[in-house]
# Entry
Amino acid sequence: MAEDKIKILFLSDNYPPEVNAPASRTYEHIQQWIRNGAEVTIITCAPNFPHGKVFEGYRNRLFFKEIVDGVTVIRVWSYITANEGFAKRILDYISYSITSFFFGLFQKCDIIVATSPQFFTAVSGSFLSIFKRKPWIMEVRDLWPESIKAVSAMKHDSRVFTYLEKVERWLYKRAASIVVVTDTFKEKMIEWGVEPDKIHVVKNGVLLDKFMFIPKDKALCEELNLTGKFVIGYIGTHGMAHKLDFIVEAAAKVSDNEIHFLFIGNGAEKNKIKDLAKSLQLKNCTFLDSVSKEKIGDYISLIDAALVPLRKSDTFKTVIPSKIFENAAMLKPILLGVEGEAKSIIEQYKAGICFEPENELDFINSIYKLKQDKIYYEGLKLGCSELANSFDRKILAGNMLDIIRSTQRNSIN
# Structure
C-alpha cells in the first residue's frame, strides 16, 4: 500500500552515538517505523553532546551522508559548544536550524517531523514545509522556553523571552499536527489556544527487550567499591533543572554508612556538584562520566533505587522524566523528586516512593524507608514491572507512526 512507503524527513540535533533521552527516543522510534514500512531520513549534526566535543571518528563537516541501521543519516555543520552557557547554546541551535533547513530542501519526503526541546529545530521544519509544500509535525518534548524560566536561566519578562514565546506560539499554529510527551503539555497548549484535535500525546517508554532485570554485576560492584552498599543511582544529564546540589547536600546528612550515591553522566553542573561533594568531604558519593547505551544496563544493575529529581517548579509538574521507564523495566524502584504527572504515574503503579522536591527531611526519610522496609521495597519492584509493560516503546512508536500517516493523508485530502 502507498502509505507503507511514506518518506519521513526527521530533524533532530541529537542522535546516536549520543546517549541522551532525545537521541534514544528518536532512534528507537525511527527503527520501529522502518520495520513498519516507512523510509526515514534524519538531518542531525556531528555528535558532541554534552561536552561540546565532536565524538571520535566524526568531524564537524558542512555535509556528511551515511546509511546507519537502515536510516539515511545526514550530518550538517553547526556551531558546537558544551551544554552550558545560554548565549553559546542559542548560537548552536540557530546554526543547526539554518544548515538543516538548507540541506533539507534537497531531500525528498512526504512529511517532515521536527523535534524539540529547543524549538529552533521546529523553525527549520516549519520553513521547510513552506518551501517544500509538505506537512510538518512538531514533536514537543519540553515546553521551551518555559523550561528556561524554570531554571532561572532567563527572566520571564525579558524581551528575548517574550520574543521566543511568540515564536513558540507561532510554531504551534503552523504545525499540521503536534506530538507531546505528557497529558499536561496538551492541557497547557489548549489553554494557550491551540486546537485540541491537532495535539496528540505519545509518552516516553522503554524497549522491553533491551531493558530487563539482571543481577548486580559483581565485578563492576567491586571495581567501584559498591559491594554491600544500598546504592541510590542517578543516571543522566547533570543540569540546572536536576538540582543535584540539593542531593549532594542531603547525602552529607545520611548517617547510614551502607547507603551510597552513584552519579553517572555529564552536564553543565557536573563539576560544580563534584566540587561540592569534595568540599563536604563526602565518602558516600561516586561520580562517573556517561557510559554507552550498550553498557548502561550493567550500571543500572548496580543500583537499588533510581533517583529522579527535578528543581521545585510549577513548570516541572508538566514533565515525565524518561529515565523512569528504563529503570522501572530493570525493576529499580523510583525515588522521585518531581510533582505533577510524573508523581501520579509512580503512585498509580506503586513503582516507587515520592518526596517533595528540595525537601531534605522528606528525601532522607524516603531513602531510609526504601532500605529498611523489605516488604515495601519488593512490592515496588512489582509495580515497576507493571509500569514498564504499560509504556512499551514499540507500541508507542507505532502510535506515533499512525499519527504521521494520518497527518500526511489529511494534507492530501
The chain has two domains: 2-205+392-412, 218-390.
